[in-house]
Amino acid sequence: MRGTWTLQTFVRELASRGEKPCLIAVNGDTARTLSCVKVAADATAFAWGLHDRGVRVGETVGIMAPNGPDWVVARLGLGLTGAVVYAFDDLFNNAELKIALEEVKLHRVVTSPSHVAALHEIDPTLDLIVLADEAPEGAVSWLSLYAHRTDALPPFDASAPALLVNTSGTTGRPKLFELTSDHLWANVGSLMKTGAINPGERILLPLPLHHVYPFTIGILTVLSFRGVVVFPEEVAGPQILKALALANVTAVIGVPRLYTALVSGMRSKIDASGAVGAAVVKSLLSLSIWSRKQLGINAGRVLMASVRKRLGPNLRMAVSGGALLAPDVLWTLVGLGLTVRTGWGLAETASIFTGNLPGNLRYESEGRTFCPESEIRIAATEGAREGEIQIRGPSVFARYTNNDQANKDSFTEDGWFRTGDVGYLDKDGFLFVTGRIKEILVLGGGKKVHPDDLEKDYASPYFKELAILEHQGALVALVLPDEEAIRASVSPRIDEAVRVALQEAAFNLPSYERLAGFRIVREPLPKTRLMKFQRFKLPAIYAAAETGVARAAPAELTAEDKALLASEPAGTIFNILKTRYPGKPVHLDASPLLDLGIDSLEWVGLALVLEQQAGVHLDESVAGEATTIRDLLARLSGSASVVRADYSAAIAKWLQPAPRWARLVVNGLIGFNAVAAPALFSLKVKGLENLPPVGPYVIVPNHESDIDPMLLGAALGTRRQKNVYWAADATRLFSVKWAHPLYRAARMFPADDRRAGETLAVGAEVLRRGGQLVWFPESWRSPDGKLQRFLPGIGRLLIEAGVPAVPVHIEGAFEAMPRTRKLPRLSPVQVTFGRPLAPEDYMDDPESPQSVANRLREAVAALEPQAHDITQEIAAG
C-alpha cells in the first residue's frame, strides 16, 4: 500500500468496523468508550469544517491539547485535510511556546481553552479552534465547525509532508523536519505483518501524544491492528493501575521510566508484605526469570500470577521505547510472565526502526529490522565492534528543514543517515545500542564513558534521579535525593547518605569511572517528555549549584503562608532563623539540612536558642521529621509537637545494670571473641600501653567494617572492657526489644542521628561516672576503606566533657568484610592505639565541634601504616 496509504484510507477503514470500540478514556471510576464509526465520523465532520474554514492541503496547522480521545479525533481530522500537522507539547510554558511558534510559523492552532490566552498574547492573529463545547472570546468551538457530508475530501499524495516534527532536544536545540504518509506506513504496514498485537487488544497509552513514538505506535499501529487505545486519567501510579483494571487492559505502550516506577512500586509492596512472604515471592520471581533465560519457558504466567493480577488482571504485554530499558527492569517484567517488546528508533525514522517482535526476539538487544527494505551498518574503526549506527530505508526522513549544516552533518556521502547513536550488531543481526555520540563523555585522560550505562551502576534506592556529566576533565554527578527513603532507612544526614551511596557504588568501578564530586539538587533535572535527560543543560546546573546544593527558588507566599508567618511563635522562629543563618536562603520551601546546613547536632544548638528567645522547646523527633521551614514552623505551632528536652529516662534505661542472665551470655561472647578474633584475623595490636590506666576517656577509632567492634574489643582485652561503653548505630540495632538487656550487658547504647541530644547526654553521663567510651566519629562504615570525614558529634561531646581522647586506627577490616559482604573473609587485621590527646591538644577552637573532630581525624590518619611509611621515608631522605 506504500504510495496509497494516508490518514484518509486509515479513517475509511476505521469507519468500516462499525460499533467496535476504538478509544477508551478512564476518568475516576468510569470508562468512556468511543466506537470506531463514531471516531471516524467525528474526524471526517471536523475535517470538512476545517476545509470550509480554509484549511488546504500542505498548510501547517498546530495542535496543542492534553492526551485523550478529543486529541485523537482532532488529529485525525487535521490529517484528513492533508494539512501538515505540528503537535505542540501541552506542557509548554509561555517562553517555550513563543519559541516554537516563531520557529514553526503557522497561522492556525487547534487547542484547549486553557491555552487560548497565552497563544493570543504571543500572536493575536492566530486562528484558534478549541476542543470544547463553548469557546472563549477570540476562538471558535470545534463542534461548531462540524460539517456532516458524504462526499470525499480533496485527496493528497502519500509522499507529501504530513507531520512537522521536532527532534527530542536531549543534546541541544531541537531541529525541525517533515515526515510523510509513506514514512509512517513503512513502519505501520511492516509491523502489521508481524502479528505483534491481537485484534481487540486493549492497550494503555500513558505517553504524550505530541511525540512521534506514541502517535505512530500507540495510535496508528494499535488501531491498524484493530486494537483499542486506553487513556488513563493521569500519568501517575494509582491512575495507571486503576486504568489497567477498569478498562481490562492487556498491554501497555510506555517508556523505561514508566516501567522502572511500576517495578519499584511492586518491589516496595513485596518488601512490605513481611519477611517470609517477601522471601517467597522473590524466590518465585528468581525461578521464573531463570526458567525463561535458561529453558525458554514462561513460568511466570503461573508462578507470578497473583502479583501480576494486582498489577493488572489481564495484562500480558509491555512495549517499551524512547530509551533503553534497564536489564533488571526488563527481566523483572519477563519474570512476572509478561511478553516484553523493546525496540529502537528515532523521530527521524517515524519512531521505530528495529524491534523484538514475534519470531525475532533477543532480550537485552533492541531487536532486528522488520521492514524488508531497511538496512543498518556500524561505522566502527578498524578492529572495533562498536561504532556509530547508520541506517537507510523507507521510514527515514529526507532532510532537516532550513538547516543545511545539520543535513551535511547527518548524512554520509553515500546517503546513509548518521543516527548519532553508538552500538553494534551481533552475528544474527540483532542491534545493541550502547550510547549516543554527543552524550559520550570524554575525560581528561582520553577515556570515554557512556553516562547512561554508568548511571545504572550508581543508581540507589536513596536517589530519585542521578545524572552523570563531565566537569574539568573528570566525572561528577547531579543527585536528586529521595529524602523520605533516606530518613526512613539510614540517617537524616542526606548529604552524607548520598556521599556514602556514591562511594560504595564506585568501589568496584575502574578509577576513571569514579566520581570526582557531586552536587545535590532540590528539583527534578530537565528532561524531555519521554523522560530522557536534556544533557546539554546539566553543566550549567552543576556550575550554578552553591555549597553542593542546587537550591529551589522560593515560591510566592500563599494566604496560608502569610497567616503562618503572622502567627506566634512561627513569626519569631522565622526571624531567629534569618538571624542565625545569614546569607542562607531562609524561606518557607527551604530544606533545613540542604539549604541551611542544620544537621543533627546543629538542631541541638538551635533548640537552645529557640528555648531562650522564643520560649519553644524543640523535640528532636520534630527536628528530624521537618523537611521544609514551612513544615518546621507548622509543627512548632502545635502544642502537641513540642516538649521540653529531658534525657533522664534514656540515661536511666541504658546505664542501668543488666539482668544476670544477660551478663552471663554477653561475658561468654566476649570471652569467645577474645580467642576467635585473633585466630581468625591474625590480629596484631600496637600501642595498647597508650591507654590511660584509669579515669574517663573516649576511644576514637575509624570505621571500616561491621566487625570493627569485635576486633577492637579483642584488642582491648576482657579486663579493660569491663568499664567500656559503646555508642552503636540505632538504625541497625535496638529494634528488637527483647535484646535490649543484652545490649545493656554489653554496655551499648543507641547513637541516633535523629536524637543527637539524647545520644550526647548518655555519652556524657558515661564519662561523668568515670567510664570509657568508644565513639565511631565517621558514623558510616567506609564505602571504600578510606578514612571519611569525622562528624562534629565527637567534637561537641569532648568540648562538654573535657576528657582525653585516644585515637585508634583499624587496618584490614575493610578487606576482611566490606559493606557489600554478608560474611567476613579471613584476612589479617591490625589495631593501633595512639597517644591520648588532652583537651588542650584537640581544642583549638572550643566554639567549633567540627574543628575538634578534624583534629581527631588528623590523629587517627597519622596512625595509618602508610602514613608511618611516608614519615619514615621523609625522615630518611
Rg for CA atoms: 33 Å
Largest sheet: number of strands, sense, barrel closure: 9 strands, mixed
Query: Can you list the strand order of the major beta sheet?
Result: 2-1-11-10-12-13-14-15-16
Overall mean confidence score, pLDDT: 87
Question: How many angstroms does the end-to-end distance come to?
Answer: 85 Å
Helix content: 25-40%
Structural class: alpha/beta
Low-confidence stretches: 639-643, 868-877
Task: Kindly describe this structure.
The structure is a single chain. With 877 residues, this protein is α/β, with parallel strands linked by helices. Helix content is 39%, strand content 18%. The protein contains 33 helices and 33 strands. Helix 29 crosses helix 32. The radius of gyration is 33 Å and the shape is elongated. The relative contact order is 0.05. The C terminus is likely disordered.
List keywords for this structure.
877 residues; alpha/beta; 7-stranded mixed sheet; disordered C terminus
Provide a short characterization of the protein structure.
The chain contains 33 helices and 33 strands.
Topology, pairings included?
Elements: H1 7-15, E1 21-27, E2 30-35, H2 36-52, E3 60-64, H3 69-81, E4 84-87, H4 94-104, E5 108-111, H5 116-122, E6 127-130, E7 139-141, E8 161-166, E9 176-180, H6 181-192, E10 202-204, H7 212-224, E11 228-231, H8 237-246, E12 251-254, H9 256-271, H10 275-295, H11 300-303, H12 305-311, E13 317-320, H13 327-335, E14 339-344, E15 354-355, E16 368-369, E17 375-379, E18 387-392, H14 404-410, E19 417-425, E20 431-436, E21 441-442, E22 448-449, H15 451-457, E23 463-471, E24 474-481, H16 483-489, H17 494-506, E25 517-521, H18 538-544, E26 549-550, H19 559-566, H20 570-580, H21 600-614, H22 620-625, H23 629-636, H24 648-655, H25 660-681, E27 684-686, E28 697-701, H26 708-716, E29 724-729, H27 740-745, E30 748-751, H28 756-768, E31 772-774, H29 793-801, E32 805-811, H30 813-816, E33 830-833, H31 839-842, H32 849-861, H33 865-876
Parallel strand pairs: 1-11, 3-4, 3-5, 4-8, 5-6, 6-7, 10-11, 10-12, 12-13, 13-14, 24-25, 25-26, 27-33, 28-31, 28-32, 29-30, 29-31
Antiparallel strand pairs: 1-2, 8-9, 14-15, 15-16, 17-18, 18-19, 19-20, 21-22, 23-24, 32-33
Helix pairs in contact: 1-2, 2-3, 6-7, 9-13, 10-13, 20-23, 24-28, 25-26, 28-29, 29-32
